Amino acid sequence: MGFKEAFTRQGDGENLLFDDDAFIYFAISILTLVILPLVYSVIKPLFTTYVLGENRRKFARVPQSSNDQQNLQLAKQELRLKWLTTGYVVKIIILVALLLLLNASIQSLPKADKIKGFDPYEILEIDPSATEQEIRKAYRKISLKLHPDKNPDDPQANQKFILLTKAYECLTDEDKKSLCMKYGNPDGQQSLSVGIAMPSFLLKKENRAAFLAVIFLLLLVVVPIIVLYELRSIGKYDQNGIMLSNQEKFERGLEENLLIKKGVELSSCSDELCRIRLKTEQQAIDLEKLVNELKEEAELRKIQKFEITEALEQSKKQKKKKRVTISIAMILIYAHLFGKPIPNSVKYLYRSTIKIIPKLVNSMVRLAFEFSMKYKVMQWRQRGRFQTKFMGARCINNILQFSQCIVQGIYETDNPINQIDFFATKAKDYIKKGKMPIFQELVQKQIDQRVLPNWVPEEFKEQIMNEINMFPQLDIKHEVTVDDESIVEQCNEDIFSIKITLTRLNTPEGEDIPFAHSNRFTYVKEEGWHVLITYQNEVFYYAQLNGANRVQTTEFKFQPKMYFGDVVEFEFILFVISDCYRGLDAEIPIKFKAKKANQISRAVEYHKEDQELDKSLPFIQSMLFPMQNKVEDSDSEDEDQSKKDDE
């Protein structure tokens, strides 16, 4: 069977033909279904960025400091260009092509007169008042023109000639004319006709190979590529937007006694940062100078086992062998922590590196919590042996301490008071025998109770006080309750709830909290508070609270007996750790008691509605045996009637 015979059926004098008009309507419908969601995906980023301003509320929360304002402008600039990606440009090109195709399809729509029913006068190109002689003359003229023998290249010539013949018969045969008037067809009432909504050019032999090639290209090349691309992107990133391929690296590096500076190594070896490459010779020169400055700074700070210094020494020992390379990200991170000025040639790399680290930290914390909460021990084969390690509260705390250092741009050994610009940059010019104030005390005190040291010049005090007020004054409350409020005596089989409430006191009610304040961070960042509830150093609950709300809450529900067995006295430790600020973390004990279940007696009380339900038949039984109830009722009525008769 040939290509044409596969799509054309001969039978009862009719052909199942390709219908050009139906194909146009079908193509317009399919194009519309494809174009509408594509238009939405193209317009949405423009509409939300320039019309709605979905980040307007978020950006309005940025504190009014110089560095924060600079970060605000950079964030707005990135937001404007965020949508302009290669994928977005490809979408626009595809949309334009589809719109052109849709326009061509609309232009090709059949005219209204073409959709009319069977009109023999129109087919013969005569007036309805034409005589029989004029009808025959028109038929002979058009039949000579449309005869299939004279149009061998027209695949529809046979159909056109048949239509012409039927039009002639309809006007010359009274019986067929009456059928045409009644049913709209000289053949009388017709059965359902079927056509194929495909263009007729597919019937031509020269188009068969091209059509089949396009079909095979779509099915065997284009569709598999799209599916594989989507499958690769699915499950590639975690909820923080960090690649899941980092998980194995983090598992190897995280440990219970994790040092804060270990975060530099873990971050710089992530897949996002280890691929950073220099593009110009000037970048290499500037980076080499920066390495020497970091080496000198590490010696002044008396940092032992400084990674960059060790890498340089090891590189010198290699000589002709392969030289040890230092991670570019590690150099930029240490330059940020030491407060070194960043060369202009690598500022873009520096900003993008520091910007992503809080997300990497969140992924590390989530991973450490998962293993700690589920009582899992991490195992892997190394050098032919199994090694195990446990990650608890200390590990999570140190990871977050590293995040604090990154956001504030200070090293772990620096005084937290350096988070305030004056004490970080100008205090050394004025302090002599005085002492630095304690950062936490300054922040947590009320405004009228804050006292700065005497050596601080008067012209800087107002500026310092304003900056202190940008840091959060946090009120932490916790409440231990049982789900059933009617319970007087609590036992270890009840469901307990520990509710933690964080309130930012120096933010007025009804207003959004600002973004995290920092004089060194390279991007805007929301204040994040990580809540840990531990018992004997094992983390049982973890939650991350962030956003614009002044009051934020989280709740931990548990049954003591399921977790701790017959223990009746509990002493949890509540950790509230910031991922933005140094020195503002809180550690609060939570103590409560619960008796054993066999030590208390509780009366079991049934609700009145429950008692009534117990007396009634179950729903399924009443549905399955409805007649049984009627028979029993009739029997009881008969017994009552017989008793009355006996009486």
UniProtKB/TrEMBL annotation:
Identify the InterPro entries for this entry: DnaJ_domain (IPR001623), Sec63-dom (IPR004179)
Bilayer-crossing residues are 22-43, 88-106, 209-229
Keyword match Phosphoprotein: no
Give the molecular function GO annotations. protein transmembrane transporter activity; RNA binding
Would I find Transmembrane among this entry's keywords? yes
Q: Which domain of life is it from?
A: Eukaryota
Q: Which GO terms describe its cellular component?
A: Sec62/Sec63 complex
Q: Where is this region: Disordered?
A: 626-647
Q: Which Pfam families match?
A: DnaJ, Sec63
Query: What biological processes does GO assign it?
Result: post-translational protein targeting to endoplasmic reticulum membrane; SRP-dependent cotranslational protein targeting to membrane
Which cell locations does it reside in?
Membrane
Membrane-protein topology: Multi-pass membrane protein
Keyword set for this entry? Membrane, Protein transport, Transmembrane, Transmembrane helix, Transport
Please state every residue range assigned to the domain named J.
119-184
Question: Principal localization?
Answer: membrane
- Which PANTHER family does the entry mention? SEC63 DOMAIN-CONTAINING (PTHR24075), TRANSLOCATION PROTEIN SEC63 HOMOLOG (PTHR24075:SF0)
Q: What is this protein called?
A: J domain-containing protein
Q: Which organism is it from?
A: Paramecium pentaurelia
